[in-house]
Write a structure and sequence with these properties.
alpha/beta, 549 residues, 5-stranded parallel β-sheet, elongated, 18 helices
Amino acid sequence: MKHSDNDAKESNHDESHAHQDSWPSFHEKSLTEAAVTEAARELQVSREMALMCAFGAMATACQKHVDVVMPTGHKVPTSLMLLTIADSGERKTTTQNNFFEAINRLNDAAHSANESASIEHRVEHQLWNTHKRHLERMYSKCAAEAQDEAAMQAALKAIAEHVRLEPQPARSSKFLYEDTTPQALVHMLYENEPNGCLLTSEANGIFSGKALGELDKLNTLWDGNSVIVDRISREGFVLQNARLTLSLMAQPSVVSRFMGKRGEEARGTGFLARFLVVKPRAMAGRRTDRKLTELPRRLAFNIRVRECLESAALPKRQLLSFSEQAKDLWFNYSRYLEKQMQEDGLYHYLKDHASKLLENTSRLAAILHTFERDSDSDTEIDYATLKFCWEFSQNCSSHFIKYLASEPQIVTDANLLAHYLLTTAHKEDPLQNRNQGEKTLNDLMSGAAIRLSLTKIKQNGPSSLRGRANSERLDAAIEILRKLGHIAREGRYCRFSESILLKEGEPELKNGQIITIRELPLFSEQVYERQENSSNGSRGVAGYFIKVR
């Protein structure tokens, strides 16, 4: 079966990308699809939030067993960093508990077992200390008498042998963490189970506290690399071959405050680029009274989660790869992303995010394949699994762009320039621009327009774009508006229009698709109209007009 580049575009960012609300479905009879569909229906929550919780649970269960080899030959872990942004009342905790039921129970059992083991360790250590003091007294007595060298050496040897037998605390099987710092988290992964999950349905403390104080450690864990901890007061250590999944939920206000305070740092370090982000559609206020069923799909899902967690990990993680058809599709996606990182592409200002998108897709596919497979010997990810995970990650990408990505400087500058030009147009010729704003045929209007010299824009335009020092920023802002079709360069002058200036064809960029200039109408809010000369002598029109709302 042959697949073309069109396969890579089936679920790509199209004209409605920023407003895409359709989330993909997996195989009808799969454990994942059944559990997600059941949760969305019975708990009356959004499908996308159920999917995020399901993937968080599956990654926690599978990350210790498998890694994935991408078609380029690069081996990566299967741990995930997931962020769900939802208001209070959206049943974040309920949804999370639905998919993490087995995980919570196993972690609680591990915690109880560790408490019992700790009590036994304290008893053993106390007895060990008592015997150590006795041996030390015996040595001190021999040393004080200074008569029998052989007895003194024997006493010293007995102490050395006893010290070597100091009881060590048992390694805990606990693997869930909530209110902690990266430093403490790394230490616990070193001392306890090296495959963990940072899980919370209310991540307020994490985004406002110290848990993100050392973003580099979380980045390193996601990458699957060793974390080196050097300390002055205590012995340092190296955490190797550990895996950590982050399944975080937070309210929009919490994320907004974090982005305002530390968003630039988080983007700069690549921390946010590693996240799959979802802001689910609001369900609160739309629910109906309904008796909850026994949720049999939840039971089957959690049985599989428990099975994965309780199965013994191999000395080396199993390597998953892609089928030949899946490899072709993977490379199609890779070419698409490379193209979209070019100057006129969707990800031109989001290269950090785009560079991690296909790796995240590969991780999702490996997790889903591992969770759903019938045999541990099945190590090949198929075409359908990769396609589903790409569609899911593309939806997450649209949410990242809309709700988490900070606005590029060039977009801010273009908005400031558009605002200045619109304001100046109305001030300098209010009558003309009022008439241009009146309705025309088919309830369309042309909007405001003006022609200004470049010198005047440099002198009177937005303060951040004035002067010789900011000339490059101004030129870049003008160029963006030109590509969007709202500015035409005419020698030393710029002709600006609220509607697209082109008399035919489409602009190089479409407002609202790759970038959004809020001061101007979206491309989807405009229409190209061609009217021939009428019999009553009225002039024909051709060009773009703004739809009257």
